[in-house]
Amino acid sequence: MPFDPFVFHFVHMDESEIAPPAKRVFPPLYVQTGDASIDRLAFFHVLERLKTQKRTGWVDNKIPNAESISDHMYRMAILAMCTSDSTLNISKCVMMAVVHDLAEAQVGDITPREGISKQEKQRLEAEAMSNFVHDMLHGSPAALRIEALWNEYEEGKTNEAKFVKDLDRLEMALQAREYETAHALDLQPFFDSSLPHLRHPEVKRWGEDLAQARSRSG
User: Fold this and answer.
1) pTM confidence score
2) Interatomic CA distance for residues 146 and 140, integer angstroms
């Protein structure tokens, strides 16, 4: 939908206007059949959940037609391709971007407001990845590559993992700006929790460009 970034009025949403989170119900883990073809096909179908499940933060803020998990990961992958940092393994960054939230196909986009501890969230996501990699994909070389990329991102130690984490933050801020403009909202908390935490010099510069553009039109 086209928008005019210069003509709108902000509507600030406070905590009382944000819908309380519903208790999350997790689907059962997949039970391996022993037939690699059947189990692999089941994994391919599970991926559809990433296309249909909405990102929780936007749903909580009553954003109409909120983005899906895969929407978020796709833009991150393209952002990774836009970097000029020749010290990074860009192919790895792109692949990491498209698998970093893969566990959410099983557990959904869990947010702190749901009362699930960080440790429990990590356990649930690791359990989901194990189910995908070993029960559905039978520990194939491709599956182990996906698992390694996911683990590298979760550990956050390599330059590529740190870069992709910054893209995760920047993508959220970009989306927040687009929702502000489209729906005349003030989504300041999404900027506060993302842009100040950018560390990669180029991504930080992209974030500054976004903040300046937002300031000019606000």
Assistant:
1) 0.88
2) 10
